[in-house]
Amino acid sequence: MTAQRTLVLLKPDAVQRGLRGEILRRIEAKGYDIIALAQRTATAEELAAHYAEHEGKPFYPGLVEYMGSAPLVAIVAEGVNVIPGFRSLAGATNPTEAAPGTIRGDLSCEQDLPVIQNLVHGSDSEESAAREIGIWFPELG
Ligand code: GDP
Ligand code: MG
């Protein structure tokens, strides 16, 4: 297998809760390398591009509002099979269903909010990773 790169976001709830270090620790402890890392508040354009696949879904307005409400941390991580590997570290989308031992399973719980706040994003395929890295780190494209 050859090394892959994936786009990880530490979402605003991860930053606000002071979990950047804990989540980065898990990524590094697993053996993945951090190639790029930047904290900033996402623009509407970045979020529209990043979440284009979800436009029109009931949770989409809440999703882009939450993701743009406060700073997030964008990361490119590298390693063999890091795309599925980081999704395994993250756990299921719904924190109640995310297994203990995963980032979402250990560190987040379901809330009574329009969007599920679940700490992290990870690319779901090689195509998504290339597209998303191009949005957040055009200099790496
Ligand atoms: P992911 O790849 O596991 O992050 O999940 P998706 O790509 O399907 O969804 C993107 C994000 O939208 C999720 O991480 C959640 O923050 C949110 N989300 C997804 N599905 C739902 C849903 O059914 N209800 C709500 N309220 N939020 C959702
Ligand atoms: Mg997704």
From TrEMBL:
<keyword id="KW-0418">Kinase</keyword>
<dbReference type="InterPro" id="IPR023005">
    <property type="entry name" value="Nucleoside_diP_kinase_AS"/>
</dbReference>
<protein>
    <recommendedName>
        <fullName>Nucleoside diphosphate kinase</fullName>
        <ecNumber>2.7.4.6</ecNumber>
    </recommendedName>
</protein>
<keyword id="KW-0479">Metal-binding</keyword>
<feature type="binding site">
    <location>
        <position position="11"/>
    </location>
    <ligand>
        <name>ATP</name>
    </ligand>
</feature>
<keyword id="KW-0067">ATP-binding</keyword>
<keyword id="KW-0963">Cytoplasm</keyword>
<feature type="binding site">
    <location>
        <position position="104"/>
    </location>
    <ligand>
        <name>ATP</name>
    </ligand>
</feature>
<feature type="binding site">
    <location>
        <position position="118"/>
    </location>
    <ligand>
        <name>ATP</name>
    </ligand>
</feature>
<dbReference type="GO" id="GO:0004550">
    <property type="term" value="F:nucleoside diphosphate kinase activity"/>
</dbReference>
<comment type="function">
    <text>Major role in the synthesis of nucleoside triphosphates other than ATP. The ATP gamma phosphate is transferred to the NDP beta phosphate via a ping-pong mechanism, using a phosphorylated active-site intermediate.</text>
</comment>
<keyword id="KW-0546">Nucleotide metabolism</keyword>
<keyword id="KW-0547">Nucleotide-binding</keyword>
<dbReference type="InterPro" id="IPR034907">
    <property type="entry name" value="NDK-like_dom"/>
</dbReference>
<comment type="subunit">
    <text>Homotetramer.</text>
</comment>
<feature type="active site" description="Pros-phosphohistidine intermediate">
    <location>
        <position position="121"/>
    </location>
</feature>
<dbReference type="Pfam" id="PF00334">
    <property type="entry name" value="NDK"/>
</dbReference>
<keyword id="KW-0460">Magnesium</keyword>
<dbReference type="GO" id="GO:0005737">
    <property type="term" value="C:cytoplasm"/>
</dbReference>
<comment type="similarity">
    <text>Belongs to the NDK family.</text>
</comment>
<dbReference type="GO" id="GO:0046872">
    <property type="term" value="F:metal ion binding"/>
</dbReference>
<dbReference type="GO" id="GO:0006183">
    <property type="term" value="P:GTP biosynthetic process"/>
</dbReference>
<dbReference type="InterPro" id="IPR036850">
    <property type="entry name" value="NDK-like_dom_sf"/>
</dbReference>
<feature type="binding site">
    <location>
        <position position="87"/>
    </location>
    <ligand>
        <name>ATP</name>
    </ligand>
</feature>
<dbReference type="InterPro" id="IPR001564">
    <property type="entry name" value="Nucleoside_diP_kinase"/>
</dbReference>
<feature type="binding site">
    <location>
        <position position="59"/>
    </location>
    <ligand>
        <name>ATP</name>
    </ligand>
</feature>
<dbReference type="GO" id="GO:0006228">
    <property type="term" value="P:UTP biosynthetic process"/>
</dbReference>
<dbReference type="GO" id="GO:0005524">
    <property type="term" value="F:ATP binding"/>
</dbReference>
<feature type="binding site">
    <location>
        <position position="93"/>
    </location>
    <ligand>
        <name>ATP</name>
    </ligand>
</feature>
<dbReference type="GO" id="GO:0006241">
    <property type="term" value="P:CTP biosynthetic process"/>
</dbReference>
<keyword id="KW-0808">Transferase</keyword>
<feature type="domain" description="Nucleoside diphosphate kinase-like">
    <location>
        <begin position="3"/>
        <end position="141"/>
    </location>
</feature>
<keyword id="KW-0597">Phosphoprotein</keyword>
